[in-house]
């Protein structure tokens, strides 16, 4: 029987998950597997989850806007999804569908892959933004040993809610105009907002107070070098672009569904960049 997996979202046409997983399916010669897109409007989500196995799917990825709704619909979750109350990966287990969340794993794995000397434990991590992506990243940074998470967000209440919901052990919240203070002594700066994406404004925070050794990264990967990464690189900070987070978050799902731990290779990176219309670097 063909082992089918899909990515569930609304809209879904632009998801690059099929490109990534079908590349690995081909690379590892898994000839009984296929990865598809499934456009699921919010009203059809419950029926889709209930029918997933009957339709031949052994698992799925979940993307916007369904991550929280899938968490609420499933009975079983791993510890990370339970903490985030959001699911991006569904696995069939002997006791039924289990919701997992690999977004934070992808974020951390990308940093360790591209900046092997960087360690979370070496100092405070500064996060711009307090949305869904920020939640996954804050939890992952704390698990990876960050001694303090500093959140800069336009809407303070959202940052307060993030810290409370995740029960972060050490968290400081900064208003946008106080961002330069947040950067003092930081070991990492990450933009988790859509600022810097093609057609949007750039992050406008002055970087003067950021130590030169601090790693700077962005979850935006179109363009690959955002305004923030350009400004950080120009003053000598090490930088890591956001594409690897997308690639690495796919690893645990693929391993759970097909039993092979896939590798994030330069070839995969080039394939996704070509799909985005960007040449490999
Ligand atoms: P996601 O789930 O992708 O993280 P989200 O939950 O909509 O998306 O969160 C978007 C984040 O980007 C929020 O932190 C948002 O700030 P607010 O909480 O103040 O809304 C931030 N954001 C989006 N546009 C922004 C802008 N123009 N300036 C500053 N922050 C912005």
Structure description:
This protein is of the alpha/beta class. It contains twelve helices and twelve strands. The chain has a six-stranded mixed beta sheet with strand order 2-1-3-5-6-4, sandwiched between helices. The protein has a six-stranded parallel beta sheet with strand order 9-8-7-10-11-12, with helices on both faces. β1 (3-9), α1 and β2 form a beta-alpha-beta unit. The radius of gyration is 19 Å and the shape is globular. Bound molecules: 2'-monophosphoadenosine-5'-diphosphate. Residues 129-134, 153-155, 158, 192-195 line the site of 2'-monophosphoadenosine-5'-diphosphate.
Strand fraction:
15-25%
Bound molecules: 2'-monophosphoadenosine-5'-diphosphate
Count of individual beta strands? 12
Strand numbers in spatial order across the main sheet: 2-1-3-5-6-4
- Average pLDDT level: 97
User: What order do the SSEs take from the amino end to the carboxyl end, as H and E?
Assistant: EHEHEHEHEEHEHEHEHEEHEHHH
Which of globular, elongated, flat, extended, rod-shaped describes the shape? globular
Rg, Å, rounded = 19 Å
Task: Tell me the distance between the termini.
Answer: 40 Å
């Amino acid at each position: 029987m063909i082992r089918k997996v899909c990515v569930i979202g609304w809209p879904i046409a632009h998801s690059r998950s099929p490109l990534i997983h079908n590349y690995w399916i081909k690379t590892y010669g898994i000839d009984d597997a296929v990865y598809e897109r499934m456009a699921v409007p919010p009203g059809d989500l419950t029926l889709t989850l209930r029918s997933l196995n009957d339709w031949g799917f052994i698992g799925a990825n979940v993307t916007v806007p369904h991550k929280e709704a899938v968490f609420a619909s499933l009975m079983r979750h791993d510890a990370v999804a339970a903490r985030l109350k959001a699911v991006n990966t569904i696995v069939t287990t002997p006791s039924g569908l289990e919701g997992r969340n690999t977004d934070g794993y992808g974020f951390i794995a990308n940093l360790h892959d591209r900046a092997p000397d960087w360690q979370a434990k070496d100092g405070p991590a500064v996060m711009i933004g307090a949305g869904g992506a920020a939640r996954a990243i804050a939890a992952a940074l704390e698990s990876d040993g960050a001694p303090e998470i500093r959140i800069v967000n336009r809407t303070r209440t959202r940052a307060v809610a993030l810290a409370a919901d995740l029960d972060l052990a050490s968290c400081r919240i900064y208003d946008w105009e106080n961002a330069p203070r947040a950067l003092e002594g930081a070991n990492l700066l990450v933009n988790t907002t859509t600022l810097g994406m093609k057609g949007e404004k750039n992050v406008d925070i002055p970087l003067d107070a950021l130590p030169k050794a601090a790693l700077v990264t962005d979850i935006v990967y179109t363009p690959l070098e955002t305004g923030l990464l350009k400004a950080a690189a120009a003053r000598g900070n090490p930088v890591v672009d956001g594409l690897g987070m997308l690639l690495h978050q796919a690893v645990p799902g693929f391993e759970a569904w097909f039993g092979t731990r896939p590798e994030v290779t330069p070839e995969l990176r080039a394939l996704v960049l070509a799909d985005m219309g960007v040449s490999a670097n």
